[in-house]
Design a protein that fits this description.
The protein is an alpha+beta fold. The chain is built from 13 helices and 39 strands. The strands form eight sheets. Strands 24-25-26-27-28-29-30-31 form an eight-stranded antiparallel barrel. Strands 32-33-34-35-36-37-38-39 form an eight-stranded antiparallel beta barrel.
Amino acid sequence: MRKMTMITVVAFMFAGCNLQERYRYSGDLEIGEIVEGVLETETPDTFFLDLENDTYLFGVIDQISVDVVVTLYDPEGNSVGLANGPAEGPEMFYFETREEGRYKLEVAPSEDKSGRYTVQLKVVEHIAADPEKRADQLFLPFSGDSVPGGVAGVIRDGELLFARAYGMADLTYQIPFTVSTPSNIGSVSKQFTAFAILLLEQQGSLSLEDDVRKHIPELPAFDRVITVRNLLDHTNGLREVYDLMPMTGWKAEDVLRREEIIRMVQRQQELQAVPGEEFNYNNTAYILLAEIVERITEKDFPGWMKENVFGPLGMDSTTVRKDPATIIPAAARGYIVSRDGYGEAGDLYASYGAGAIYTTVEDFAGWLNNFSDPEVGSGELIRRLVTPGTLNNGDTMTYAMGINVGAYKGLKFYSHSGADNAHRATLLYFPEIDAGVAVMSNNGSFASDHAARSLADVFFSDDLEQEKKNNKKKKKEDPGRVEVPDHLLRAYEGKYKAASIGIIMQYTFREGKLIFSAEGQPDLELVPRSESVFDYQGVEATVRFNLDSRGKVVDAVHTQAGTMYHLVPMETHEYSADELKSFEGRYYSEELGTFYTLEVKNGTLTLLIRNTEDIELKPMDTDSFSGDAFFISEVNFLRDTGGIITGFMVSNGRTRGIWFGRI
């Protein structure tokens, strides 16, 4: 049962019509008022909102004692989007709708928990049509003198067409974000590292077909050669450092020396995949690429990049941060939300090559200008930089060298997003119109990709194909719209194992729909294309379920970015108390040099790692469990011929098969 209290707010509130003409809104939530709620286990609270066409909606939910997921459903019951960010404290939600009607805002516990929360609807208004007002709207949640902010830049023909900053770069000293504020762009840095490698190739200092051991000879001699190209296009079979190190008890702001990453690779006994066989995004690879630059040039990577790339391109505010102790003058500090509000979050250690570049939207203009009119490198170098890689089976990937390549509303575009501990960034470039968008933020809650694409929509509207608005009556009569019987949706329900990438994927039948979920990822609704094939709403991916003659799922195939992943259904195994006790004990990983302890706590098998909150393991298949931490997504136990447990393998999406032997 829902228990709520209305609290009057005596403070500045965003007007529901502050950007455009008055908006006629009504609903269970009044703009500016705070509603207190109490969630019971598996019982969501719902609020109905009457919205007009083309609506932007923004609010904040304070997770006082329960982690929540906020979902908005359209009048036909389809999910418009969801917010599932930090597990405690304030969480922003913002949605955009196109059709008029009654929408349902659902507040649900993210797990089988109960607790208190408050929700406040701050803004309900029309989606801004004016490009500059649209930018203001997208950054509205990140504006003001008490919020970590960001900056938007729109670039055309190598010039900054529009730039505006919002919010604060430094909350401690109340320093506002400006268009000249350097900010960490995370993995957007990878294209610069790839560019450096291609420059060295152009100079004859290396070949992309070189064995990486030619340049870093202390790396192990695996049974297959890893080439420099395999590092560039994420097809190398190495462990991913920032998914591996948390398994040791390391935390994201802990010191990590680059020498340790070399030792980490040296301890890897075998490759996770044959080089060139599969794409598996990998920061380790780009850290090694920066190491190759240093060894060939005999200069440190930050200095070499300044001298050979940033300086010649006039990117005077751009710096590779060597480690989090390096001072970047006037740079934006990173912030994440905690129970007490915003707190500072430092950068990742040892990340340069994979990340760690600080830059400005002004400097991004110079970088994109080099794509169309190369001053550093050559046209051929740029062509190679943006040519997608090819797998061993001949399939073409959507990833080139530090850059995603695809199409957006009729135009070819290059893109990459980045996320350090707290900073967020996205860079888009449309080569056919020589135009791009750069957005950066020091707020860990900032959805950079959505902001960048939304800005491209309004600033380049004359060049992009415009989506036609749905006619609701036609939509209901659309013969292409597939209705899947409930008994089939229930047949597809369950947990599936993607063995090749070590991920457990779950499909749940909910209110007549199939919903996808996975550890550390937001829930996604599946849109049927046939009775067995579904699209993931908001993601360019599909899943196909295969049934036997009895109507039971045999397997499924998830397809994304040109790669197919075989999914095997998992039967949830029920364990008695004595069976769970049999897993208890101490285990050791030679590769990680780390001890794990397993104990049964309150009827749940629990993994204890130093410097880490307890990780609950949920039964999956026989001798297989799933952990509630992103880096422990799968634990598979092995037994000897006598049925005695000898150890287990730990995996997650990017790091697989870490062996822990029982001691």
